[in-house]
Amino acid sequence: MIRLRQNFFPRFFKTGPGQYGEGDTFIGVTVPNQRTVAKEFKELPLGEIRVLLNSPVHEHRLTALFILVLKFKAARKHPEERTKIKDFYLDNLDRVNNWDLVDSSAHEILGTWLTEQEDHSILYTLSESDNLWYQRVAVIATFPFIRRDDYRHTLALAGKLLHHKHDLIHKAVGWALRDLGKRDRSELLKFLDRHAGDMPRTMLRYAIEHLSDTQRAHYMKKQ
């Protein structure tokens, strides 16, 4: 059964005038239903995926990205095909224009592809963009590096974006730091010792979520 939440989604994704999702259109299809559709159409060619990405309907774009992620994973043993999908993703990055679209695709496609490359400069190019979503893509794309115990890009971007004005970047950076801290507590604590006093409150709260009560209180007092 297809479940619809047409009235809830526009409020949740801030589509009102002046909000980050202004003008986005929703038909109310839930994520589990979209994933089901994506699996059914995982063989959809890139040209048809582009049609979905160009749709004004949010769920069309998200389903397109679910399909693209499935295609990327299926091409695990075919690096040329993976590069083609990564290029397609970057060519259409302007359509990855809300936080759930970013969070469902940036680490799965761009981040994973980059871990297999020597040149990671695209992360910094994206982080220096004026586009909020490109900046979030850069942060989220560092998650596969974290899971390989490579923290340099997460820490570098966290420093670069420390004074960003938007809470969606604060949340993304804090989330990445929290994941880093799960794997290497000492690296997180070193970053917090240097920057806790300058971090946006939301970023700090996300970053320290898995610390002890005493440690959380210590860093919150630096605000």
Automatic annotation (TrEMBL):
User: Which InterPro entries does the protein's record reference?
Assistant: ARM-type_fold, DNA_alkylation
Species, as recorded: candidate division WS6 bacterium OLB20
Q: Which domain of life is it from?
A: Bacteria
Protein name in the entry: DNA alkylation repair enzyme
